[in-house]
């Protein structure tokens, strides 16, 4: 029985979330938390995923039609990714993740990248990680109607990546940042939060200024990473969080933990990802771990992943 497996790292947004959607720069890093997508030959196409909000789900996709609105919303990334492939060969697709869905760690990007990587190789194609990134970016934007290249590129390519403003480019940064990261569950998806930000931004000229300020913070953070200046990096985190709070994309629990981080003297802390709850990152320290755990955050393995998506053929 032939199988192909894709191991996809998840990501932490270090700086520039939301602003990057509007042409500002951003920085993200791939981490050791990961998603595993396995494609195995079968007589019909089924998908099973252990960590979806609708619980353990197994769907016969032969008709590629799903009645339930909620189920379709949860499976939209999978469905759109499978629809990308003109050539359909039946397969059993299993998805496992080391973290919960929709907590700011790039699981929507990882699902797409994992299926693109594993299913294309299952069909006999050999895509580069950059080709996987570009295909996946288009699919995520199609599902969400809005979004940047940051998450799909980061989980496809790995490393610490800088996304220059007003560009489709990407630059690998040479640095190894110690991060303490964790997450709490949230109710809104990133797609929903993105739509809210866009609605406000279209009406409010202040948003343009805030987005540009975030862009300046990202440039300073890039310098800090290149100079290994942890003090400056931490200051940029606090400022970036304050600007995200002014956009309305943080949450009381995120704001409280970041404010407490500053009070107890941590070097830096900020929301990470789409917001509305979800992930927080701090400059790595035992005190940061204690703070996040004391607020009920689940700590993540923030070890840098340099490889991006890795594909392997399994014949069993
Ligand atoms: N293990 C999984 N199996 C199937 N679909 C998943 C899985 N994990 C996430 N998804 C899909 O991705 C959606 C979550 O995407 P969302 O963008 O809200 O969160 P995220 O990508 O984890 O966070 P962020 O975009 O802020 O980094 C889920 O609602 C589901 O549709
Ligand atoms: C909020 C956002 O900037 C990051 C989500 O992880 C959305 C995007 O870049 O597509
Ligand atoms: Mg996402």
From TrEMBL:
Tell me if Nucleotide-binding is a UniProt keyword of this record: yes
The record's GO CC annotations read: cytosol
Sorted alphabetically, which keywords does the UniProt record give? Answer: ATP-binding, Cytoplasm, Isoprene biosynthesis, Kinase, Lipid biosynthesis, Lipid metabolism, Magnesium, Nucleotide-binding, Transferase
* Localization per record: Cytoplasm
Broad EC category: transferase
Q: What is an annotated GO biological process for this record, any one?
A: isopentenyl diphosphate biosynthetic process, mevalonate pathway
Where would you say this protein principally sits, based on its record?
Answer: cytoplasm
Q: At the top level of its lineage, which domain of life is listed? A: Archaea
Q: Per its UniProt record, what NCBIfam families does this chain match?
A: mevalon_kin
Tell me, what does this protein do in biology? Answer: Catalyzes the phosphorylation of (R)-mevalonate (MVA) to (R)-mevalonate 5-phosphate (MVAP). Functions in the mevalonate (MVA) pathway leading to isopentenyl diphosphate (IPP), a key precursor for the biosynthesis of isoprenoid compounds such as archaeal membrane lipids.
The subunit field of the Swiss-Prot or TrEMBL record says: Homodimer.
What is the name attached to this protein's record? Mevalonate kinase
* Organism of this sequence: Metallosphaera tengchongensis
């Amino acid at each position: 029985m032939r199988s192909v497996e894709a191991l996809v790292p998840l990501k932490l947004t270090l700086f520039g979330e939301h602003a990057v959607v509007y042409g500002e720069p951003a920085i993200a890093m791939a981490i050791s938390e990961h998603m595993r997508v396995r494609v195995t030959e079968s007589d019909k196409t089924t998908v099973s995923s252990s960590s979806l909000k609708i619980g353990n789900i197994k769907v016969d996709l032969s008709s590629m039609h799903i009645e339930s609105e909620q189920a379709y919303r949860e499976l939209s990334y999978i469905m759109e990714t499978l629809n990308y492939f003109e050539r359909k060969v039946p397969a059993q697709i299993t998805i496992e993740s080391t973290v919960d869905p929709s907590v700011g760690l790039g699981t929507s990007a990882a699902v797409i990248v994992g299926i693109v990587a594993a299913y294309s190789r299952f069909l006999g194609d050999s895509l580069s990680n950059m080709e996987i990134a570009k295909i996946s970016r288009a699919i995520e934007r199609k599902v969400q109607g809005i979004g940047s290249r940051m998450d799909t590129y980061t989980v496809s390519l790995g490393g610490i990546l800088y996304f220059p403003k007003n560009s489709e480019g990407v630059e690998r940064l040479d640095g190894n940042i110690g991060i303490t990261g964790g997450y709490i569950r949230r109710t809104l998806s990133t797609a929903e939060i993105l739509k809210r930000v866009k609605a406000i931004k279209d009406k409010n000229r202040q948003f343009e200024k805030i987005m540009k300020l975030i862009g300046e913070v990202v440039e300073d953070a890039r310098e800090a990473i290149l100079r290994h200046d942890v003090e400056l990096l931490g200051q940029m985190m606090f400022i970036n969080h304050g600007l995200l709070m002014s956009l309305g994309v943080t949450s009381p629990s995120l704001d409280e933990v970041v404010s407490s981080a500053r009070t107890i003297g941590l070097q830096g802390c900020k929301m990470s990802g789409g917001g509305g709850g979800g992930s927080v990152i701090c400059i790595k320290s035992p005190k940061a771990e204690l703070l996040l755990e004391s607020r009920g955050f689940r700590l993540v393995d923030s070890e840098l992943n340099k490889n991006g998506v890795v594909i392997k053929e399994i014949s069993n």
